[in-house]
């Protein structure tokens, strides 16, 4: 069992920045592909970014050039640096883990992950 806990959400004005963190319990973090998804009210969960065990990254089209995903295996932590935020980035952001993933694998779909956090709310005002 893997427990994922997100933090760092909040209210920010358009053009501002936020940094989300996801801390994973246990000893499987280094053996896991990690991802961020988001879900706005009435919409499907959307892929934001993923990082493989090797450090390869992949981003959703709507956040490319603005968001950056990273990981620190020594601290069991993944972060999402979000810059130039827009009102359409408003959503609940979820951290996800795929334990035992291929070394270079960056899943960009919800079924690619085994574990999910509870989410952290990001609200961007115009």
Task: Summarize this entry quickly.
The protein is mainly β. It is 0% helix and 48% strand.
Task: Describe what this molecule looks like in 3D.
This protein has 126 residues and is mostly beta strands. It has strands at 4-7, 10-13, 18-24, 32-39, 46-51, 57-59, 67-72, 77-82, 91-99, 115-116, 120-125. The strands form 2 sheets. Strands 2, 4, 5, 6, 9, 10 and 11 form a 7-stranded mixed β-sheet that branches. A 4-stranded antiparallel β-sheet has the order 1-3-8-7, with no helix packed on it. Strand 4 and strand 5 form a beta hairpin. The protein is globular. The model has no long low-confidence stretch (mean pLDDT 97).
Q: Which consecutive residue ranges, at least 5 long each, have pLDDT under 50?
A: none
Count of alpha/pi helices? 0
Secondary structure category: mainly beta
Percent strand:
over 45%
Biggest sheet: strands, sense, closure? Answer: 7 strands, mixed
SSE order, one letter for each helix or strand = EEEEEEEEEEE
Terminal CA distance reads 40 Å
What is the global morphology?
globular
Mean pLDDT: 97
Radius of gyration: 13 Å
- Residues in helices, as a percent range: under 10%
Let me know the number of strands.
Answer: 11
